[in-house]
Design a protein that fits this description.
single chain; mainly alpha; Endonuclease Iii, domain 2; Endonuclease III, domain 1; 3 domains; two-stranded antiparallel sheet; 54% helix; binds iron/sulfur cluster
Length: 308
């Protein structure tokens, strides 16, 4: 059946599809502390944290970070080194920097209040289409679709794109999400699709027998386990990706006391115990990248610390 035919058929069953999913969510939705939050800062923080970190880790770090930085104001006025320290264990430290920059913009340009307009939200540091829509829906109650990895998977299985094995273009998936969006309960609907993708319609082994969409889904019991995708080789050293060494560098700097610095010659061995003279150029480039991102500060030519 063509995609158009499939869409028409599904739109006929939209009511059933929506009520099945919402009922399933009512019984099986995950109990997550940010679920019933509407405060824009708290919603945004949870979304940024969840971007590249597992839910189990965010569950621990979210309340800790909130306790330390409970508002845009407190975050904007904090020392950057303290924000990076509080981000410990989350990975991808650039997010902490962008979050603080965002807080500064919100304070300077929007009197400490996150704008409600999606286009304005998307101009803020670190906010892409997904996060802007998530904040608009979960915090401001707007009826807008959301597409993240989990939702994309569910939607494209329920309504597969035309053409064998063709992956849907991003815009097409957003249009699909828009067409499925119910008139009411957009918040619960988006949360429900996320949970469905995370717990039932998983990438490798979907549990179709437990899925509220099984009677409507053309992919039910059809998804075969795919060979794990071969990861593109990342730049690194000795088989270890640079992102690991970046994480180790920030971790070593987190341990310094306030205003303390460390010699790069010492730092080199902290992050790579078998450091050799042939690694020098690579190490300098690693530090250069971190400095350019604003994650470290060169105090003198051969000493570094976290930014103030
Ligand atoms: S029936 Fe199976 S493939 Fe279809 S949405 Fe549900 S879990 Fe995914």
């Amino acid at each position: 059946m063509s995609k158009r035919g499939r869409l028409e058929l599904l739109s006929k069953h939209k009511k059933l599809l929506t009520s099945n999913v919402l009922r399933w969510y009512g019984k099986n939705g995950r109990d997550l502390p940010w679920r019933n939050e509407h405060d824009p800062y708290r919603v945004l923080l949870s979304e940024v944290m969840l971007q590249q970190t597992q839910v189990s880790r965010v569950l621990t770090k979210y309340p800790q970070f909130l306790k330390r930085f409970p508002s845009f104001k407190r975050l904007a006025e904090a020392k950057t080194s303290d924000v990076i320290k509080a981000w410990e264990g989350m990975g991808y430290n650039n997010r902490a920097l962008r979050l603080q920059k965002l807080a500064e913009v919100v304070l300077d340009k929007y009197q400490g209040k996150l704008p409600r307009d999606i286009q304005q939200l998307e101009t803020l540091p670190g906010i892409g289409r997904y996060t802007a829509h998530a904040v608009a829906c979960f915090s401001f109650g707007q009826r807008v679709p959301i597409v993240d990895t989990n939702i994309r998977r569910v939607l494209t299985r329920v309504c597969p794109p035309g053409g064998r094995g063709r992956s849907p273009e991003e815009e097409e998936t957003w249009t699909l999400a828009e067409s499925f969006l119910p008139r009411r309960h957009a918040h619960d609907w988006n949360q429900a699709l996320m949970d469905l993708g995370a717990t039932i319609c998983t990438a490798a082994l979907p549990k179709c027998d437990h899925c509220p969409l099984v009677s409507l889904c053309p992919s039910a019991h059809q998804v075969r386990r795919k060979k794990p995708a071969v990861r593109k080789s990342e730049p690194g050293n000795g088989g270890i990706p640079n992102r690991i060494f970046r994480g180790r560098t920030i971790q070593a700097l987190r341990k310094l006391k306030s205003r303390q610095t460390i010699a790069t010659s010492v730092l080199a061995f902290r992050i790579k115990p078998d450091f050799q003279s042939t690694d020098r150029r690579w190490f300098e480039s690693l530090l250069g990248g971190l400095e350019k991102d604003g994650l470290i500060r060169r105090v003198a030519r051969r000493r570094v610390s976290l930014p103030e």
